[in-house]
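Regression test attached.
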Amino acid sequence: MANLIFSDENPSAAAAAAAPEATSSGGSIFDMATGAGACDGDTKWGSSLGFMDLLGIHQDVIAPSLFDSFQPPPILPPPPPSTSSEPLLHQQLDAKQLQALPSPASTLPESSEVLNNPATPNSSSFSSSSNEAANDHEPTKAEDDEEEEQDQDKTKKQLKPKKKNQKRQREPRFAFMTKSEVDHLDDGYRWRKYGQKAVKNSPFPRYQSISNLITPLPFHIGPLMFIFSKHCYIIWLKNRSYYRCTSAGCGVKKRVERSSDDPTIVVTTYEGQHKHPYPITPRGSIGINMDPSSSFGPSFVVPQPQYLHQQQQLQPYIYNSSPSLNITSITTSGSSFNASIPDFLQDRRFNTSPTSSSASLLRDNGLLQDIVPTQMRKEAKEQ
DNA sequence: CGGATTTGACCGGCGC
DNA sequence: GCGCCGGTCAAATCCG
């Protein structure tokens, strides 16, 4: 996984991964019709910038705006969710920080309440408006029935009309970043996925004459490659998943996507506040102890090594305790890893062949489904 | 069979 | 007004 991305053999791929997103979530898709962005056959991958240059860009642009402003919370950062992933960042971000976040945060309305103290969506630091907002989206049963009748004439897909001149109130959002191979981190609550969007993520559309296509393609985020007029174009796609808490009356939402800057990072954005007790998970997963009596918000239960052992196929990433992204530590060189990493976490760290890694990444990111039609996938499955 | 997920369609906001 | 995009819905499908 990550070790492939930043492999020494393919430094420009690493640079690509480190390159900051030029625009917000609406990164422009490469213009195939006009050929905009096409280059001549001499262009190499990331040739305009060296590996270290791009690393520098990454640090200059990303780190100061997001990571350098990170202040260690008074209590340990949360989740290592049960995926054995490690938390990178966890705090309520101020508007500036949120804008620095890839995309979930960039859409944060200014009216959002943000507090600079560590908390989770369940923490008391969130505004108490969650009920209202939740009711906006989840009307009462009576209202539902009434509207169902009204909607008889309407198209099935048509949505219920919203009150005019009333901007939808957004819940305060809370984002944190986690190094993980799995997108949906188990935080102990039960979530139902209600939507998924493929978002374009093309900071620097990469292209190259097909005749010069020597270096392996950097399959680390989900490139959709196509060939047009002797040029190989790649559009970077990623999925954004939308989850809703399954508890009745709880309108908490959760948005999960990969970071544009580092696809090994999962950006989880919570919206709203749970209005129910923290569910006790029978799985014994690591959970968040949502003790409402605690004025410090939730505390987090450290996963037991035994449990992590069961999850080792997830290839947990050992995160750097430094607030900034130390992407240089992610190399194919085994010596770059800390010797203190338990054996059971090291077992599978370097067993990724380019082939399996590419495939698994495509699978993990859900990109396969974006690129390959469902029918084709089904056929492949049957074979 | 019930709950969860997938996925195409739809709506509203926003920028041009 | 139009197009793009984020967010949501809900039927179809999957899965235990």
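Expected vs. actual: identical. Confidence is low (pLDDT under 50) at residues 1-85, 89-165, 202-221, 281-383 of chain A.
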